[in-house]
Amino acid sequence: MKVAIHTLGCKLNQAESELLARKFAEAGYSIVSGNGADIYVLNTCTVTHIADRKSRHLVRLCRKRNPQALIVATGCYAERAPQELMRVGAGLVVGNEDKMHLLDFLEVEPETAGHCSVGQLVKDGASRVRSFIKIQDGCNNSCAYCVVPHVRGWEHCLSVADVVNEVKSRVSAGYKEIVFTGTKIGDYRHNSVNLKELVEQILAAMGVEQLHLSSLQPQDISPELLSLWQDPRLCRHFHLALQSGSDNVLRRMRRHYSAGDYKRAVSLIRKTVPDVAITTDIMVGFPGESVEEFEESYRFCEEIDFADIHVFSYSSRPGTLATRMPEQVSDKLKNERSQRMLQLAKESASKFYQRFLGRDLMVLWEKEVAPGSGIYSGLSGNYIRVFTQSREPLTNQFRGVIPARLNNKGLWGEVTGED
Fold first, then answer.
1. Residue 200: inside a domain, yes or no?
2. Are 354 and 413 in contact (CB under 8 A)?
3. Which residue range(s) make up the domain with 87?
4. The pTM is what?
5. pLDDT digits over 105-136, tens only?
6. What is the pLDDT at residue 127?
7. Which terminus of the chain has fewer Cβ atoms in its 10 Å neighbourhood, N or C?
8. 3-state DSSP call for residue 369?
């Protein structure tokens, strides 16, 4: 049986899809990239109405690719509105709670022919380079706009032993970088072990070549946590959620920090971690966002000087407080504000990239961008996208590069040490 797994949304979904792929492979299924699958597993997202639309489109697309295939929808949209996915063609819908037991729901015996080992899994064409491990799930905050507590539940963490076993497994399989992910990994705590202590244990004993913490909150940042970055194996990249640079909007959102708190966290990071990249999420058009509040948020983002900004428009989610708030912002205004923020994001990224022209960067090379092209793509330790042309295979190697120019997605340079 051939299985294709498609993922929408966050790194947490990516981690879960990777684990599902491993489970299918170990059970004897052949993992394929798309066409010709007998089973399509769609790990959906529901954080915005656009994510919902993409999920429905993916169900229809897979149905078109193989009308006889079983379409399995799982993830957050499947948790929130299973009937909507059934209506567009999903044959089986499995919520987040049962996602990891998906094989138990499939009443088919996998054929042993074409068995695919874990080390051969198709993962965005970049096998054994970067592996996502979920260490935490759920959220207790209930921000006014967010549907995550409804579809992910309250906070819970993997045990230290489970995390250690997952890391050992991925390192043994040849992965060079481990990414810890979750809904709020800064809240990790199992028994008496917190995130800092977990990372210390992993770095001390697991043979990890590179470790990345996927996303943190401003209130997670402390001198004690940042002391971990004395170890060069920790990626010098912080994705620090902002949502708005206006204190009034942050209060209505029910975020647990102010713009001043955020600025202090950024200052502490930059004092401690050289050449760090700080990226963020910005929402435009939250209910009641005035012209003045948007401009305040825009100016704040200018001042912080982010390495990149993920911009998205507020989207009403069923069951959230913001849906019932007055002064809903029009789609026209949302679009205008989104375009301004996107332009700022582009300018900020370009400014950040330029700082590294002519400097030696160590890059984990992922894959050849097109078979036979000799052009490879990878990420530096501070998560700058870098491209190069090489006669030697670079996939899954750490190699230095000296960037010479910007391109539309990052930097282009020459690998050091090549003739």
1. no
2. no
3. 2-119
4. 0.85
5. 775 433 332 223 333 333 333 457 899 999 99
6. 52
7. C
8. coil
